[in-house]
Structures are given as structure tokens and as C-alpha cells.
Specification:
heterodimer, A: alpha/beta, TIM Barrel, four-stranded antiparallel beta sheet, B: Rossmann fold, seven-stranded mixed beta sheet, six-stranded antiparallel barrel
């Protein structure tokens, strides 16, 4: 058994496999299927200071090797999370992170302040990249000035590990990565979904109620890999790579591109046990290639 | 005890083609089955079919605890359902089940009407069986485009009195399910209505039930990615806000739904 441990700022991960926000609920939904504590960590559903109903149905379109969603951060708000959901999560013997989002900087701050008080929450993932909300979300993540404003504001109130989740819907992700690092991000996670669209030719209507949505799944993996590789050369903070990871080989590719850990998202919908299979597969790969530690392959791309 | 959700490789032990585009697959479950309730569903993985990425949800049509099998009723609609419907006997389908809530079963025998349309009858078979075990007085109204679309009527007849409608008049009453006289003349006698089928049909049934203040549950089918409450894609509007069809449903009391009926 190889040493699969990895570090994201102050987070000690027993293995590099986390679950992507919005694909793993609060972990509890998976209790029937697997022991969540075996994972490197989980990132729970995007949380905002106020409850959100999310967007209208239909919210999902299956696409070639992927899917579009337009959920729109449906959640019951940070206070409900703290009082009613958080107590159920303290049983997990792994890192539990909360994905924090908002429509204004004040909302991000208020939400982060509440999460900051929760002892068993190891860190936050600051979501400045949700493509499915009208105000805030991705609009914070597409210009360096707004990235600096929101990241530095939350940095002032949040004391534990803060990962900033980047959007791929930009011209140059590296400059936004540098802006987030400069403003106090301890780590960067990438990529959130790619803005896309589906049309039903028979009805001549958009499939999604919101017309556009976020694309995820294997279709986006080459873009995600390219962006992780670019950002790894632009910043010093550790990266959490994601985008279409379906198996251990996909995950290995992200480590080679420069990710210190990965998140598995859409694959959980198809196989709720996929994360455990990926952990096993990473171990097999390291053994087969005679590496004793995962960290030996991070940024290990042969050029 | 309600069965925990599992993911297992299910062996196809029978694949009955019921008509041009409907198949009934009997699937052998490796682990011992616990109770599966009427209305619950399975999310099946589609193998080797380019263009199909997500699982496909199907009502659990029947459960055989002796043989340790579940059956699903599959209508061929697109590539995914076609591939599943044509799965040969002795090959395997990966299934996630049992998912979702279930129909509410009355505590004492009552006069009950089941209304099904198209492949919506799939979720009513397990319900009819359960209700007949509890000695309810069951009427079952089923509609289809033509007589070929009416399947498993003998099976339904063993649980209650069956009424049919077809759009072309080849079986039973001509017209839509909602035109059948049982929804007018005798309607007030029913204590409970359960319905599954096309949404316009369920809305029409729900509207009639509401007029007479009859207890009515419907089983919804919204497009979903996961089937167990994490993607939040399959929501329907309820008086308590958006609820997931996969976990808060698929069965809803019509009074919970924000249907304009």
C-alpha cells in the first residue's frame, strides 16, 4: 500500500480523493452506499446565507459524455446548515468542507462567518464560479478586481483553510488564479462547470428552463486538465483538480498536471461507490509504477 | 425493515417482449431482498451505448421474494431504454435500488381506484398487489393509444376490476382515460385514488379528486441525474418549495403539489 496522503494548506488528507460540491449532498445521502470516512474529504452542497429555492425545472440535460445542470444553488441557508445538518456531519472521520456562495460580498462574509464557528468543518471552498445564478456566483470569478474583493473580504473573517473555486468561463484562468492567491486563498480548486446549452430540435425549445447551464462530466476533462496545468505554473498554492474524473487514471492525469488532490463530481451520480474505486486504483497505479508516495507524482508530467 | 439503497449487478433471468416497444425484465438480485414498497424505483445503468451517460429510472413493477428478483417494465423511448429493453437473458444490468418513497397503503380495507396511462401502469402493479393483499375493493382504469398498448391486463384482473380505454377504440371505452364514465358516475364512492401516467392525465384525475375531496396520490417522473437526492435536478414545486421527485417522491399527495387544478 502506497502512502496516499496529501496536504492542502492545513488540511491533512489521508488520500487525495474528495467529492465535488453539489454532487455529494451532505455525505449523508451516501451512507447507504459507502463509509464516507474512507474518503480524503467531502465538500458539501453550495451554501448561501439565505435559503434559496434554485431555478425552475427542467434543470438537467444529458449531453454527449456529460450533462448540463442549472440547479442554481438550491439550499436551506447557512443558519439551517449550522443548526440542523452540521450536527449530523460530526460523525465523519474525514475533512468536511463547506462550499460557500453568495450574491454580494456581504452575503459571502455573513455565510463564511457562520461556517467559521463550526469546529468540525475543516475549511471552506469559496464558490466564485457558479454559472447558474443571476447575481453573484460566477460574476465574482471573471475579473481580477472582483476576485480580489471577495477573496480578501472573506479572508478577513475566515480563519481555517480557504480554497477558492475557479470558473473556466474566462479567457485566461491563470491571471484569476494569481488574483485569488494574492488575495489570501490557501488553495485553488478548478474547474467549476463550463457554460453550455442544449436545444430540443423537435420542440425547438431550450431543454433547460434557464436556457443555459453548467456542463460537467468526461466531456470537460481535457479542458480541466489544461487549466490545472496552466494554473500550476502560475501559482504556488496547492491545487485541487476536478472536471470529468470517472476513474483512477483520470485522477492520476490531474496529479501529473499539478493537482495535489482531486474532486470527483458527476461520476458519483452514476456510481455512488466510484470514489472508493478511484482510491484503490490510485494505490494500484503507484505500486505498479514503483512510487511509494502519491506526492512523488504531483506535477510529475514528463515534458 | 425498509431496504437500504444498494448498487448491484442484476442478472436478467427473463426478458418478455409484451408488444412492439414494451419489455418486462425479471432481474435476479445477488443479495437477499428486504421489503420494497409499491412506488419505489430502480435506476439502471446502460451498457455500451454511446450518447447515453446517465442511468435510467424505472418503477419496480413487481418483487418476487422467493426467487429474489425484481421486475421492471421498460418502454423503448430512446437509445438508453432501447439498449436496456433488449438486454439478453443471462447478461447483467447494474441496478441502484430501491429508491424513492412509496404509495400510502390504507390501514383498513377501502374502495380504491387506480388510474394508469401508458407505461405509467408499471408503478401500479406492485401497488395493486399490495392493496389486494389487504382486501381492498380495487378498480383499475387503464388507458392506452390502442389495444396493443394495454399489457398485463390478466395480471391486473387478478387484483381488481379492470376498465380500459383506447384512443382508437380497439379495446374498452373509446377515448382518453379521463373520459371514462367511472370518473363521473361512481367517482364519489372511491375513498382513494392512485394515479401514474402522462402528466396531463394525472392532473385531470387530480382535479376530479380535489373536487370531491378524495385522497389522491400521483407518481411523478422528472428527468434526474442521480436518483438519490444529491443532484437536485428532478425537483417539482410543492407547497413547501422545491422537492426532489427521487427522494421526496416519486409519490406525492396532490395537496402537496402546486398544480393549478
Amino acid at each position: 500500500m502506497a502512502d496516499l496522503s496529501t496536504t492542502i494548506h492545513q488540511l491533512e488528507l489521508k488520500n487525495p480523493v474528495l467529492t465535488a460540491s453539489g454532487t455529494f449532498g451532505y455525505g449523508l445521502e451516501y451512507d447507504d452506499f459507502l463509509d464516507v470516512s474512507l474518503l480524503g474529504g467531502i465538500v458539501v452542497k453550495g451554501t448561501t446565507i439565505h435559503p434559496r429555492q434554485g431555478n425552475a425545472y427542467p434543470r438537467m440535460a444529458e449531453t454527449a459524455s456529460g450533462m448540463l445542470n442549472s440547479v442554481g444553488l438550491q439550499n436551506r441557508g447557512a443558519r439551517y446548515f449550522a443548526s440542523d445538518i452540521y450536527p449530523k456531519l460530526t460523525k465523519y472521520k474525514t475533512n468536511v468542507l463547506v462550499n460557500v456562495s453568495g450574491s454580494t460580498i456581504e452575503e459571502y462574509i455573513a455565510c463564511a462567518e457562520i461556517i467559521n464557528e463550526l469546529e468540525h468543518i475543516a475549511g471552506i471552498e469559496l464558490n466564485i464560479s457558479c454559472p447558474n445564478v443571476k447575481e453573484g456566483g460566477m460574476s465574482f470569478g471573471t475579473s481580477c478586481v472582483s476576485v480580489e474583493n471577495v477573496v480578501s473580504a472573506v479572508r478577513k473573517v475566515y480563519r481555517k483553510t480557504m480554497i477558492v473555486k475557479l470558473t473556466p468561463n474566462v479567457t485566461d484562468i491563470s491571471e484569476l488564479a494569481r488574483a485569488a492567491e494574492y488575495s489570501g486563498a490557501d488553495s485553488l480548486s478548478l474547474i467549476n462547470t463550463l457554460l453550455g446549452m442544449a436545444i430540443n430540435a423537435e420542440t425547438r425549445k431550450p431543454v433547460l428552463a434557464t436556457i443555459t447551464g453548467g456542463l460537467s462530466g468526461p466531456a470537460v476533462k481535457p479542458i480541466a486538465l489544461r487549466m490545472v496545468w496552466e494554473v500550476a505554473r502560475a501559482v504556488k498554492v496547492p491545487l485541487v483538480g476536478m472536471g470529468g474524473i470517472m476513474n483512477a487514471t483520470d485522477a492520476i492525469e490531474f496529479f501529473l498536471a499539478g493537482a495535489s488532490a482531486v474532486q470527483v463530481g458527476t461520476a458519483n451520480y452514476i456510481d455512488p461507490l466510484v470514489t472508493l474505486k478511484i482510491i484503490d486504483g490510485i494505490d494500484s497505479y503507484l505500486n505498479r509504477h514503483k512510487f511509494s508516495k502519491l506526492t512523488e507524482i504531483i506535477s510529475g508530467l514528463h515534458m | 425493515m425498509q431496504m437500504r439503497k444498494t448498487v448491484q449487478n442484476l442478472k436478467v433471468i427473463e426478458n418478455l417482449q409484451l408488444n412492439e416497444d414494451h419489455h418486462l425484465l425479471q432481474l435476479e438480485v445477488p443479495d437477499p431482498l428486504e421489503i420494497i414498497y409499491p412506488g419505489q424505483f430502480a435506476n439502471l445503468l446502460v451498457n455500451h451505448t454511446p450518447g447515453v451517460f446517465l442511468r435510467r429510472p424505472f418503477s419496480i413493477y413487481s418483487v418476487d421474494y422467493l426467487k429474489n428478483t425484481i421486475s421492471v417494465f421498460i418502454k423503448e423511448i430512446g437509445e438508453g431504454t432501447r439498449a436496456l429493453a433488449q438486454t439478453p437473458v443471462n447478461s447483467y444490468i447494474n441496478g441502484m435500488f430501491p429508491l424513492g418513497n412509496s404509495f400510502t397503503i390504507p390501514g383498513k380495507p377501502e374502495k380504491i381506484l387506480l388510474v394508469g396511462g401508458g407505461s405509467g401502469v408499471a408503478s401500479l402493479m406492485n401497488l395493486a398487489r399490495e392493496l389486494s393483499r389487504n382486501l381492498n375493493d380495487i378498480s383499475i382504469l387503464i388507458g392506452a393509444r390502442s389495444s396493443e398498448g394495454l399489457v398485463e391486463l390478466d395480471q391486473f384482473s387478478s387484483y381488481g376490476t379492470v376498465y380500459t380505454t383506447t384512443e382508437n377504440g380497439t379495446h374498452g371505452q373509446r377515448g382518453y382515460v379521463t373520459d371514462h364514465p367511472i370518473l363521473r358516475d361512481e367517482f364519489g364512492q372511491f375513498k382513494r385514488i392512485y394515479s401514474c401516467g402522462p402528466e396531463p392525465m394525472m392532473r385531470a384525475v387530480a382535479a376530479k379528486a380535489r373536487t370531491k375531496s378524495i385522497f389522491c396520490e400521483v407518481s411523478l417522473e422528472n428527468t434526474m441525474a442521480c436518483g438519490f437526492g444529491v443532484c437536485l435536478c428532478c425537483v417539482t414545486e410543492t407547497i413547501e418549495g422545491h422537492k426532489c421527485v427521487c427522494t421526496d417522491g416519486p409519490v406525492f399527495n396532490i395537496n402537496q403539489l402546486k398544480w393549478q387544478i
